[in-house]
Design brief:
- The chain has 253 residues and is an alpha+beta fold.
- The chain has helices at 97-109, 173-188, 216-228; strands at residues 8-11, 18-24, 35-40, 46-50, 65-70, 80-86, 92-94, 117-126, 129-137, 142-149, 153-154, 157-160, 193-201, 208-211, 231-240, 243-250.
- α2 (173-188) runs parallel beside α3.
- It starts with 7 loop residues before the first strand and ends with a strand.
Length: 253
């Protein structure tokens, strides 16, 4: 892995993020799970905000603090977009799932991770699966990359997947399909194709990423993938204002 040297790997566009308090989610005005009613801290303005991470397991809920940026256009029902949330201890964490993909793309581009790999395309289909990124390494091996955002943490451990329902069971059929497809690729195609399953937590208070023990089906699939040759890695990001900076490589357990 190349040195990050405090490289900014993503900047949330627009003005400096501002703090807001969630009044209700879903919004009481437009009852969509992707909309929340908020109160902007600096101005006292009440309005709707788009929440791409939905409720994020309680981080976007009544009385919780979030960090927002104006929408780039006036289209749509919401005035702002929620990019970050606050933990009880005051840690500001990134929760926007699309931002995670943009960060990983730039980590590859800046050669901070996997410097031997050049990403050539995004949202690429292989068989019945669509992966986040595709590229080639210096040995001309094809490389498929799938990014999983892990914003939820318990006692310093980021957890993926983490559903709202705390009962055991499958959380994300889509995530399971991705890991099963990667296993199939490396088993069938062999040495000329690499698959990288990458977990990103956009917070600095975690020392590892754990594949959830509450979802035994997914966990077993990830362990099988690792045994088959899928490369499974984890990283964390720290935020300085609107800027994302590489923080650390984390073990995935």
């Amino acid at each position: 892995m190349a040195s990050s040297e405090e490289v900014i790997v993503y900047t949330i566009p627009g003005p400096k993020l501002v703090r807001a308090t969630v009044i209700a989610r879903p919004s009481k005005v437009v009852k969509s799970p992707y909309l929340a009613d908020i109160r902007v801290e600096d101005t006292g303005e009440t309005c709707m905000a788009h929440t791409p991470a939905l409720g994020c397991c309680g981080y976007v809920a009544e009385d919780k603090k979030v960090w927002i940026s104006p929408r780039p256009s006036s289209e749509g029902a919401s005035k702002y977009i929620i990019f970050m949330a606050e933990t009880i201890s005051g840690e500001i964490i990134g929760i926007h799932p699309t931002v995670a993909n943009a960060i990983v793309y730039n980590l590859f581009k800046e050669r901070i991770i996997f410097p031997e790999v050049t990403i050539e395309d995004v949202e690429v289909t292989h068989g019945t699966c669509r992966f986040d990124m595709y590229g080639k390494d210096v040995d001309n091996n094809e490389v498929y990359v799938e990014v999983k955002c892990a914003p939820i943490a318990i006692e310093g451990v980021a957890i993926f997947p983490h559903g709202n329902n705390r009962k055991k069971g499958l959380v994300s059929p889509r995530a399971l399909k991705h890991v099963e497809c990667m296993t199939e690729i490396v088993e069938k195609v062999g040495a000329k194709t690499r698959c990288i399953l990458l977990y990103l937590t956009m917070r600095t208070d975690c020392n590892r990423i754990q594949i959830s023990t509450m979802d035994e089906t997914y966990r077993d699939a990830v362990l099988k993938a690792r045994d088959a040759g899928v490369e499974i890695v984890g990283y964390s990001i720290k935020w300085v204002g609107n800027n994302a900076i590489f923080n650390a490589e984390l073990p995935v357990v």
